[in-house]
Write a structure and sequence with these properties.
Pfam families: NMN_transporter (PF04973). By secondary structure, the protein is mainly alpha-helical. Helix content is about 80%, strand content about 0%. The chain has one domain.
């Protein structure tokens, strides 16, 4: 009987230690993810460095709690961090970075329909062929986040609308899996994406004004 209680105590001690390690790594990932959004709001290229390290940590964390698509999503984020850095520094016609742009409602409707269909197909596969938790929600947040990250790299203004919905759904996913620090982070995101939208919109208007002045008839 004493061996049973000793084994049980050791199991609790080991589980507690693992939980502490998980929380510590999650805290680092949260801080870097928060830094990413702040830098992105300001249009700073440092957002991509913060994103790369944060997503590397999250790739492992999500895999350990069986959010498979979220884990794969973060592998994609790591690649997009490299692509986004290149676009913001070397993209555009003059290879000096891209400016903020706005896409039409029809373009976004097409994006939503296509991405939604892909998400349903992947969610069905995950529900029937894998051990993934909440497969349809996991697939939906993943597919739309994949698409929206591309919009960020291209500096499409409306990316902030997509992130608001994605973050709201993600809060439920993370709470259900006990990733409370990440859930709190995404609550902060909901407010920050609103500010991000207005900051980008103001910058886009400034760009358009500057461009109009550069090409005004009075210019030599």
């Amino acid at each position: 009987m004493s061996e049973f209680w000793l084994t049980l105590a050791n199991s609790f001690t080991r589980a507690f230690g693992e939980a502490q390690a998980l929380t510590a790594w999650e805290a680092v990932a949260v801080l870097l993810a928060l830094a990413y959004l702040i830098f992105a709001m300001k249009g700073s290229i440092w957002c991509w460095a913060a994103a790369f390290v944060s997503t590397a940590i999250y790739t492992i964390l999500f895999w350990n709690v069986s959010l498979l698509m979220e884990s794969l999503l973060n592998v994609y984020y790591m690649a997009m961090a490299v692509y986004g850095y290149w676009m913001w520094t070397r993209g555009g016609k003059d290879h000096d970075g891209v400016n903020i742009v706005s896409w039409s409602a029809m373009t976004h409707l097409k994006i939503i329909v296509v991405t939604g269909i892909i998400a349903l197909a992947i969610g069905h596969f995950m529900a029937t062929q894998t051990h993934a938790s909440l497969p349809y929600l996991d697939a939906a947040t993943t597919c739309f986040a994949v698409m929206t990250t591309y919009l960020v790299a291209k500096k499409v203004l409306e990316n902030w609308f997509y992130w608001f919905v994605i973050d709201a759904v993600s809060i439920y996913l993370y709470v259900s899996k006990g990733l409370m620090l990440t859930a709190v982070l995404f609550v902060l995101y909901l407010g920050m994406v609103v500010f991000g939208y207005y900051m980008w919109r103001n910058k886009m208007e400034d760009q358009q004004t500057l461009s109009a002045n550069d090409f005004s008839p009075g210019k030599a």
